[in-house]
Amino acid sequence: MRGLWTTARVRAAEERVMAAVPPGALMRRAAFGVAVVAAELLAGRRRVGLLVGAGNNGGDALWAGYHLRKRGVTVTAVLLEPSRAHAEGLAAFRRAGGRVVDRLGPVDLVVDGIVGLSARGPLRPDAAAHVAGLDAPVLAVDLPSGVDPDTGHVAGPAVRAHTTVTFGCLKPVHALADCGDVRLVDIGLADALPGPDLLELDPADVGAAWPVPGPDSDKYTQGVTGVAAGSSTYPGAAVLATGASLLSTSGLVRYAGPAAEAVRAHWPEAICTGSITDAGRVQAWVVGPGLGTGLGSEQVLRTVLEAGVPVCADADAITMLANNPDLWDARDPDTPLVLTPHDREYERLAGPVGEDRVAAARRAADKFGAVVLLKGHATVIASPDGRTLVNRAGNSWAATAGSGDVLSGVLGSLLAAGLDPALAAACATRVHTLAAALAADGAPIPASALLHALPDAIRTTRTP
Ligand SMILES: NC(=O)C1=CN([C@@H]2O[C@H](COP(=O)(O)OP(=O)(O)OC[C@H]3O[C@@H](n4cnc5c(N)ncnc54)[C@H](O)[C@@H]3O)[C@@H](O)[C@H]2O)[C@@H](O)CC1
Ligand SMILES: [K+]
């Protein structure tokens, strides 16, 4: 499990550590780390260009330039605000033979020291002009300039990093935005940091949490998942969600709804009934994909919410909760509920997502007393108990019709197996991402291919 810390906490920790070490020591450690990674990326090539902003981020770049000069690398620097460039860093850079230029000529690697933790908004026009002309790979110092450190939001021109070297700890930007390959350099902050603001699961965490049958397990003890999804118009959503539940855990899956025939034809092992009232007992419900939003669907949602078991409410279930807030009354507030909106569904439910997706997910989690899984390239999972998890997809293969139905099926089966709902949401998201990458292997895929890659994805997380 990896922790991520917001800039306010990082700064507080840096201040505590700085008070106890010689002046400039943290910057030296940081810059040395940048130089080591730069040398690795250069792989014997010899020309580096620095883009240097007005603060300590630029200072890191200048000191890294100093270290690279000591290794015989040719280093040039553009100072975006010459009068505010880090004075000691600039002096050391010049002493070591670094040259200040107006524009970067041909180089093998660019070091982005334009702006770091103090970044506000997109790149300013002069910085943007320097960045626009680059054709060498960019090594970002702390974070790609132009990307918000705490939200990962990109409001305009920004650096696109091949690699990012960050210091002391990861920040939200490293999970919420594209920072390329992220390297962490230890500058001695660990003991000064409080608990993390965000968490990101490693595949091994997912593997450790994933429910697998033991010697005493049978089909009931592993949790029975109920799927209330699909319609005569959209039987596919039912087929995908039920299939995902079946492939995620080895218990039992019951399907209830008008797509029973289609589900039975695809998944003979599912127990299918035409009506929610005949479904039998389950340990968790998945409700919503392809269900429709008419009166009959509302009654299905009500029945599921009244059942007193954990519920994953997706797609049309979210729209119904937004359209008809009376439906919330059907829910026992002590029973876990996971809502899995994409941005438009979120907006129907809780207003605009805005630039800060973490804050949005937390707002809705508080408001509804539910785990909120806000889907996106970086999915944010907020629990009403304050925990927030993120999962960066790293690819977009899962952006395909029916992919959400698969996610809710996986999540429902983990809830039925008794996983903590926020952990279930994070594990399901991670495996969904892995399955998409495995199935795609470089080419577009339909959701059914993602579905059939679930066992391989789960296996990946369980392999040490
Ligand atoms: N505080 C510390 O102990 C350490 C800080 N370090 C470095 O210091 C950085 C933070 O430095 P600072 O707080 O001096 O500030 P930055 O270097 O992040 O920003 C400097 C200035 O850039 C300008 N700026 C803000 N947004 C901009 C934008 N969108 N486009 C262009 N310019 C913009 C502002 O005038 C701002 O004051 C970290 O990211 C890290 O690289 C490291 O040296 C490690 C130790
Ligand atoms: K930067």
From TrEMBL:
UniProt key word Mitochondrion: no
KW Nucleotide-binding (keyword) present: yes
Highest taxon of source: Bacteria
Key words of the record: ATP-binding, Isomerase, Lyase, Metal-binding, Multifunctional enzyme, NAD, NADP, Nucleotide-binding, Potassium
Binding site for AMP: K375, G376, H377, A378, T379, G404
SUPFAM superfamilies, per the entry: Ribokinase-like (SSF53613), YjeF N-terminal domain-like (SSF64153)
YjeF N-terminal domain segment(s): 10-195
EC number(s) stated in the UniProt entry for this protein: 4.2.1.136, 5.1.99.6
Domain YjeF C-terminal per the UniProt entry, residue ranges: 202-461
Name recorded for this polypeptide: Bifunctional NAD(P)H-hydrate repair enzyme
Source organism of the structure: Saccharothrix longispora
Organism placement in taxonomy: Bacteria, Bacillati, Actinomycetota, Actinomycetes, Pseudonocardiales
